[in-house]
Specification:
Radius of gyration: 21 Å
CATH architecture: 3-Layer(aba) Sandwich
Distance between the termini: 62 Å
CATH topology: Rossmann fold
Number of helices: 8
CATH superfamily: NAD(P)-binding Rossmann-like Domain
Length: 281
């Protein structure tokens, strides 16, 4: 590895599985010490044990401000500082048509997917401001960029997260803190496997299904693809990048995989009233 996060201290929420676990592993391999913050205790402890002495697990419910505050305080106590907060934890949440949506499911989904990152930003900023340095990352979705790609409440939360990321980036830029967002596409992860198959461990099955429909032939999105995006944004490689949403989706949201663009074949240029070619004086 390149050691791009040598001696950095990071918190990754939702790091017991999926994108967060892959990111925690990669951050540690690149030299960071990582606090794995998640409600999945058994899985979270297993990931921390797998990583070794560069990681520790902390039970963290991102809906609860005291829980996030405690995770940040422990990271600072154990590592001496906080260089990166990746507010990655999220759920699919409420599903179904708008006319039968349940307000309590809306509230729970928004609490995890938008309130949680908001609180992560708040408590990361209180530590990073005195340092005058740090990186805050959020995890949105391509559902925030194009209609019909996710459930209603999930989509609303992820779209709100992009706006929140940009606004906080403006506030914190003058004190040297960068704030960026990642928008994953269709990824072969436990969350998607659980949603589609009912079993979060059937990731291999999901990988085949996603690869079959990928704009990049035979290539599914993997958790490591998001981990590498997070590594770039957390490192000095992205030292001049803030307020950005990095889309990692094989080109799905630009229309890749839907055929060649219109007018892709060479022909004389089209002018007014259907005339073609450059006018000859």
């Amino acid at each position: 590895m390149t050691g791009r996060l040598h001696d950095h201290a990071a918190i990754v929420t939702g790091a017991a599985s999926g994108l967060g676990a892959a990111t925690a592993r990669l951050f540690a391999r690149e030299g960071a010490r990582v606090l794995i913050a998640d409600v999945q205790e058994d899985r979270g402890r297993r990931v921390a044990e797998e990583i070794g002495d560069r990681a520790l697990y902390q039970y963290t419910d991102v809906r609860d401000e005291a829980s996030i505050e405690a995770a940040v305080d422990r990271a600072v106590a154990e590592f001496g500082r906080l260089d990166c907060m990746f507010a990655n934890a999220g759920i699919v949440g409420a599903v179904g048509p708008i006319a039968s949506a349940l307000a309590e499911e809306y509230d729970f989904t928004m609490a995890v997917n938008l309130r949680g990152p908001f609180l992560c930003m708040k408590h990361a900023a209180r530590v990073m401001r005195p340092q005058r340095s740090g990186v805050i990352l959020t995890c949105s979705s391509i559902a925030a960029l194009r209609g019909g790609l996710g459930p209603h409440v999930y989509t609303a939360a992820k779209a709100g997260l992009i706006g929140l990321t940009r606004n906080v980036a403006v506030e914190l830029a003058p004190v040297g803190i960068r704030v960026n967002c990642i928008a994953p596409g269709n990824m072969a992860t436990e969350m998607i496997a659980g949603l589609v198959t009912g079993d979060p461990d059937r990731v291999d099955e999901m990988e085949k299904a996603i690869a079959a429909g990928s704009p990049l032939p035979g290539r599914a999105g993997h958790a490591d693809d998001i981990a590498r995006a997070a590594l770039y944004l957390a490192s000095e490689d992205a030292a001049f990048v803030t307020g950005h949403t990095l889309v990692v989706d094989a080109g799905l949201t630009i229309g890749a995989g839907q055929g060649l663009p219109l007018f892709h074949e060479r022909a004389p240029m089209v002018r007014e009233a259907g005339r073609r070619g450059i006018p000859v004086d």
